[in-house]
């Protein structure tokens, strides 16, 4: 029996993120976030999800990558916090198309390149395409820092 991991491919620009299924709380249709003054361009504002206000980010903009402009395809991935030192329990990442379930098998994933920035752990090649493994703890810390900086709390 081959070892495998249930994952999701989350398209956020010309590339996708690959994350374990357990990291994704839910995929929801795009809705216009509540904008708040003082936030950087990659921080799109806040969504009300299950009566919780959560920050929505454009990872593509944070990483200075190409941004897709066809809003009709936008989706949002609600991501669970992975450690206990962050203020937010969830973050929302703007996706530019529908995510896909993906079964990652040991022999179908290979290392391509080291982290291009602090938001990515590494780039990998899957059987069908290349993807980034995101640095979720760093994303949560960045969002916490921006929230504290812009709201003083």
In short:
By secondary structure, this protein is mainly β.
Report on the architecture of this protein.
The protein is 13% helix and 43% strand. By secondary structure, the protein is mainly β. It has a single domain, classed as CheA-289, Domain 4 (OB fold (Dihydrolipoamide Acetyltransferase, E2P)). It has a 6-stranded mixed sheet with strand order 8-1-2-11-10-9, with no helix packed on it. A 5-stranded mixed sheet has the order 3-6-7-5-4. The termini are far apart.
SSE layout:
Blueprint: E1 4-11, E2 16-20, E3 24-29, E4 43-49, E5 52-57, H1 59-62, E6 75-80, E7 90-95, E8 100-105, E9 110-114, E10 120-125, E11 130-134, H2 136-151
Parallel strand pairs: 2-11, 5-7
Antiparallel strand pairs: 1-2, 1-8, 3-6, 4-5, 6-7, 9-10, 10-11
Morphology:
globular
Question: How far is the first residue's CA from the last residue's CA?
Answer: 51 Å
Briefly note the CATH topology name.
OB fold (Dihydrolipoamide Acetyltransferase, E2P)
CATH class: Mainly Beta
Number of spatially distinct domains: 1
Strand content: 35-45%
Order of helices and strands: EEEEEHEEEEEEH
Roughly how much helix do the residues carry, as a percent range? 10-25%
Secondary-structure arrangement, i.e. CATH architecture: Beta Barrel
Number of helices: 2
Major beta sheet, strand line-up:
8-1-2-11-10-9
**Mean pLDDT across every amino acid position:** 87
Assign the CATH superfamily.
CheA-289, Domain 4
Low-confidence stretches: none
Largest sheet: 6 strands, mixed
- Please report the total strand number as a whole number: 11
Class by helix and strand content? mainly beta
Q: What integer value in Å does the Rg equal? A: 15 Å
């Amino acid at each position: 029996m081959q070892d495998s991991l249930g994952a999701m491919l989350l398209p956020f620009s010309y590339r996708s993120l690959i994350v374990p299924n357990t990291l994704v709380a839910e995929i929801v249709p795009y809705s216009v976030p509540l904008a708040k003054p003082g936030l950087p361009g990659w921080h799109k504002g806040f969504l009300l999800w299950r009566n919780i206000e959560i920050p929505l980010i454009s990872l593509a903009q944070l990483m200075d990558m190409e941004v897709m402009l066809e809003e009709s395809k936008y989706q949002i991935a609600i991501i669970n916090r992975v450690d206990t030192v962050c203020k937010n329990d969830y973050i929302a990442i703007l996706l530019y198309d529908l995510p896909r379930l993906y079964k990652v098998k040991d022999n179908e994933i290979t290392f391509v390149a080291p982290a291009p920035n602090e938001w990515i752990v590494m780039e990998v090649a899957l059987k069908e395409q290349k993807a980034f493994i995101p640095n979720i703890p760093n994303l949560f810390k960045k969002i916490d820092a921006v929230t504290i900086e812009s709201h003083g709390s």
